[in-house]
Amino acid sequence: MSSSTALATANFKSKEKSLFTQMLNFYDNKQFKQSLRNADQILEKHPDHPETLAMKALNMNSLKRKIEAFEFIKKALFKNLSNFTCWHVYGILHRSNKNPDEARKAYLNALKYDKDNQNVLRDLGQLQIQLRDYEGYAETRRQILVSKPTVNINWMAYACHKCERALEVLESFDKTLKENKEKLKNHERTEITLFKAKLFEEMGDYQKAINLLQKKGLIVDQISKFRKLAENYQKLGNKDKALEHLEDLLELSSANTNNYYQILAVHGYSNKEFKYSSEDQLKIKEIIEVYENRFPRGNSHQRVLLKILTGELFREKLYQYSKPYLIKGVPPLIVDLKDVYQDKEKTQILEETLLSHLKSMEEKNTLFNDEQEQDPTVYLWLLYYTAQHYYYLRDYNQALKYINEAINHTPTVIDLYVVKAKIYKRAGDREYASKLYEEARKLDLADRYLNAVSSRYLIRADHVEEAEETMGQFSKEGQELNVHDMQCMWYENEVGLSYLRQGNYRLALKNFNYIEKHMEQVFEDQLDFHLYAMRKYTLNAYFQMLEMEDNIYKNKNAVRAAIGIIKTMKKVDKIREEEQKKFQPEFDSYKASTEYIKMCEELKKRDEDDEFKNDFDPKGYDLYQKALQDPIKVAYDFAVLVASCNPEVKEVQAKMIPIYLRKNKLLEALKAVIALTERHPTYEKTLSSRIRFSQHWNSLTEEQRKQAIPDEKLLKVASQEFEALGASDEQSLKNLSEELLNQNLDKIEHVHEYIKTRTVLFKENDTAKYEKVAIDALTNDLRRNFKVHNAANTLKRLTKIGASDVQYRQKAQEVFIHARHFD
Amino acid sequence: MPAPEARIFENIKTEKPATRKLLELDIKFGDLTDKNVEQFRILNYLNLPVIYSEDFYRRLINNLRYSKLAYLKDVLVGAISCKEDDYEGERVVYIMTITILKPYRRYGIASKLLEQAVKDCAKGNIKKMNLHVQSSNQSALEFYKKHGFEIAAKLDDYYTDLQPADCYVLVKNLEQSTTSQ
Ligand SMILES: CC(C)(COP(=O)(O)OP(=O)(O)OC[C@H]1O[C@@H](n2cnc3c(N)ncnc32)[C@H](O)[C@@H]1OP(=O)(O)O)[C@@H](O)C(=O)NCCC(=O)NCCS
């Protein structure tokens, strides 16, 4: 801003001039309070000075006085409609208020009055790419490039759009480099070359991509080079060359199983489910075992074969694969074999292998079919693997038998307590699971991972305070836990869920809300990345990042938080009025408490920019008060972002449907029903979602539907789609629900959903029948494949509808002997 | 130390006294620290008749020079803990505990721990080691005798809460001893 500073302060006295410069410096150093003070001092002398007014607004905005800042800049702008700084700041404020469209307009206005202003152009460009307005972005970057062609970043940034044009730009970039006798650094050259090759590949010009990749001296990253060469040759149909480069790749990274799958694909074996006839299996074995001899150190070739082989071929490979691990004692062995559990026969073979080793160790201290004497740890790890094996099969009694034996054998091994804790957790005793995990944690106080997981177990057992204390041993700054500014989202989710279980909806909401904030933050943060990536020439990584940013709401924690918020707000919605009455006095007394007043004073004194350290509402009182006005809206506002990013996540879709209906978003609700029906036809909530929607739709008049979907064409399509789902009269729907139950009599989650559908949606009350099907489900599920919490939900439901739950409870106690839900 | 029933171990199996195992094991030593002291506590709890007080562990942490943990392939299987002491006017190293988990006994692991302590004594210029052992602890007596310890005294009613209550005082003179087995 320095040349324009002189201009802006042309008729200032020297004191004001230096105040002005200082103000800018303060701002750049994020000392907003000081900067604001200077602005006020200048304004005393020059009350209408547009640049100072703009700076004042900027500072207020940074100090989170957003509304005030807005009023202020509007006034300033009104007086100085042709001042580009005011327009620029107006744009910045809009952007920081998440109003990108308005911001873009403001920047364009600013440019009217100073068409080459680099700052504004740069901000505009960032905004355009943030909005994925590639055309606009290209134009902006072109302007920047024209005015500053000597800056390399400007070339990179301009190259950031699709294929042909990008290639052209990169060619001219090369030319200017040559003209200026400039050379790029090796990794920069690598990035650009790989980027170009990718462009060729995307255009289907594989030969050109290959030629480029093969040119000497362009690429330092050999792994990427060989991978890309192999991919392009494969696409060209040149198998030999593709294989040659895949083998080059193996020399560099033989640990990557994908390389082997790719080799198999070149040979024509690319079954997505890895299912092959026994003839093919033999051929595959032959292909891969060649590499086993060439790369004896890695094990990824074996892992690939373990995934593909079946029957005796699998048994043999498993024996060969697992022996060195058993002897060396490597804890994650069975975790690596997790895939095996998708196949019944292979699971059986794994079990037989483990048990025969155990027996042999007990009898003669050697592994099965082996002569070499082993030390006692081999027996220990076998017990440990066997326990985990039964844990995966949900046979908790067997799992406990083996893990207890292991603990008796060698009680100093932390992993044993970890597994035992897991078993109890899954078997339904969170309290004891947490005790066990604490035991594991205490055995190694220096282990951060154990610390975090133990905190999680404590929260699961609803000991939030203890968990906080435990977490604090690693994550503390001064007196405060710094989980929030560290964006420790799993923690916030778990705490939120615990408060939800405990019926503390205020704190539940507060914790889920942290995640909402983090997501916004992540999205905002990419602004800084746009230029950073250009500067580093990492275009490939950059595009990956853009894609990731487009999908941030796919984040698992965002999904969990959305589900958490929906559950919480639905509960609140049901008891809203009582809750409001109860909450008001709590709210008042909190606001009057010395704790609160002191905290406010404390925070005002601090000069921090961090949203989480500067939180005036750490206990969520304000948030909850707002939520009580309209809980459904609170749920909708966040969850809809997540739902629209995750059409394939069934739980979110199902949970959203009632919310959509409450918000009169008929089209969205229908879309969710269709998504569930198409993608998850066997999910227990799919049919009930459809029933709920159908009942709602049928209850509306034509007029009401028009109101919900004003666009006539859309309404017509929606009606057709709705009809395409099938008959929707009450009797047909009832039949469907009965049918679904009959297909799933052994699945407690289906039975639970059935009872809910019959009672809530069809208003029936055949309690004797519900109780019977519930008990039958527990009896019939021989796969032991249900989860305790589904069974517990069913118990709650039975109690709720006034059915006798005595027998069901008894049965559940019998089936889930370790669970505490049925006490 | 929490009460035994609050601890997580169940059904501690007893094992037949073993005979000498021939397999040579690769034992690594590790240090006792304030972070892993709980593992050491388990060893004592399961292998020794005495239940040591919190105070014992607190003092131990400040006195780790002659204490070592024994690992077999990253698994903690045994430990020795010692402190410097005065014995008849002489500076000695007093062995407080030596323990090996049952499945790992008779592989020579305790011997390795003891040999290491003897080496450390030489470095610290210590000429004598001593200890108390319950008179009924045959395997320990055998073990110490094999390593050149001699009975210096028998103390009646040494233990207040163990039966039999008497113990031997064993002493090993480091200057003239051969530490081989
Ligand atoms: C005593 C103890 C530490 C020995 O551990 P260990 O690793 O098995 O001992 P080693 O293998 O090094 O044994 C060395 C020698 O001690 C003798 N010994 C050890 N245990 C013996 C036993 N149960 N019976 C007879 N002799 C035994 C043998 O002479 C052995 O040599 P050998 O195996 O070549 O015959 C172990 O048994 C233990 O932990 N006991 C319980 C704790 C205890 O009482 N500690 C001592 C008091 S603090």
From TrEMBL, chain A:
SUPFAM superfamilies: TPR-like. Keywords: Coiled coil, Repeat, TPR repeat, Transferase. Residues 170-216 form a coiled coil. It holds the Pfam family TPR_16. It comes from Stylonychia lemnae. The lineage of its organism: Eukaryota, Sar, Alveolata, Ciliophora, Intramacronucleata. It comes from the Eukaryota. One of its GO terms (cellular component) is cytoplasm. This is N-alpha-acetyltransferase auxiliary subunit-like. TPR repeats lie at residues 223-256. The gene is Contig3780.g4044. Signal peptide: none annotated. InterPro entries: NatA_aux_su, TPR-like_helical_dom_sf, TPR_rpt. GO terms for molecular function: transferase activity.
TrEMBL record, chain B:
InterPro entries: Acyl_CoA_acyltransferase (IPR016181), GNAT_dom (IPR000182), N-term/lysine_N-AcTrnsfr (IPR051556). GO terms for molecular function: acyltransferase activity, transferring groups other than amino-acyl groups. This is Gnat family protein. One of its GO terms (cellular component) is NatA complex. The keyword Transmembrane does not apply. GO terms for biological process: mitotic sister chromatid cohesion. The lineage of its organism: Eukaryota, Sar, Alveolata, Ciliophora, Intramacronucleata. Residues 27-175 form the N-acetyltransferase domain. It comes from the Eukaryota. Keywords: Acyltransferase, Transferase.
